[in-house]
Amino acid sequence: MQRPTADSTNPGPSRLLISSCLIVFFGLLLMALRIAQKNEIMAIGAVWVANALTMVLHALYWKRYGVSGGFKIAIVIQLVLTILPFCFGSLGIMAVLLMLGGEIHYW
């Protein structure tokens, strides 16, 4: 029987992709539930929390494995969108609403 190679247990980007997709999927489910309940502010909060969780995952992946230039820019933009409401109050919330405008307007 052939022994497995050393690379077969390397997590690689697949764990990050699966984790990010699961967080986004459940965040969108929560958003759809809150919109169906006519609670748009909670829908925005669900997507904001999902964005924050994926940002943490991406930052940890960046620190551990490193990423290319385009992905670094995307992670920094994600970080800015996550902390804007804390830094700028209503202007930060308006930026998050701008990010989510298409989803909220569609429903």
Automatic annotation (TrEMBL):
Chain segments annotated as transmembrane: 16-36, 43-61, 73-100
Lineage: Bacteria, Pseudomonadati, Pseudomonadota, Gammaproteobacteria, Pseudomonadales
Name of the protein in question: Uncharacterized protein
Swiss-Prot/TrEMBL keywords: Membrane, Transmembrane, Transmembrane helix
